[in-house]
């Protein structure tokens, strides 16, 4: 329960930071404005999945998060009228985005890796996954 509350708190802090990053006139250089928002989106995605699946190891959470981010990014290439209409709304832009970009994928994967490493250090005693010990004869 404590882990779920911690991960939920991280999501609830990350989302307004990400929205502010994209919506407020912070005067950020374009690169940081564009990819910082993508980075924060993927951080929120990782911690949201960690909230839903608190018993998973960071490597499993990172894998699920990366797959979800890739599915969402590649879905932009497939026209679907109802989803495309949602993408035109503010919520749709923030959740699903509007345009496909390989550079966004790089930002997502970097953010998810960052989140998994942070998760490992925020949860002492948890590792990236189960360790397999091989015995040497």
Radius of gyration from the alpha-carbon trace, in angstroms: 17 Å
| Overall average residue pLDDT | 92
Sheet/helix structural class? mainly alpha
**What is the string of SSEs from the N terminus onward?**
HHHHHH
DSSP, total strands:
0
Q: How would you describe the shape? A: globular
Unreliable segments of 5+ consecutive residues? none
Oligomer: single chain
Q: End-to-end distance, in Å? A: 42 Å
* Helix segment tally: 6
**Major pleated sheet:** none
Transmembrane segments: 30-49, 56-75, 95-118
Pfam families: DUF2809 (PF10990)
Keywords: Membrane, Transmembrane, Transmembrane helix
InterPro entries: DUF2809 (IPR021257)
Layout of helices and strands:
Elements: H1 2-23, H2 30-52, H3 58-75, H4 81-87, H5 90-95, H6 102-122
Helix pairs in contact: 1-2, 2-3, 2-6, 3-6
Descriptive account of the structure:
The chain has 137 residues and is mostly helical. The protein has one domain (2-122). It has helices at residues 2-23, 30-52, 58-75, 81-87, 90-95, 102-122. Helix 2 (30-52) crosses helix 3. Pfam families: DUF2809.
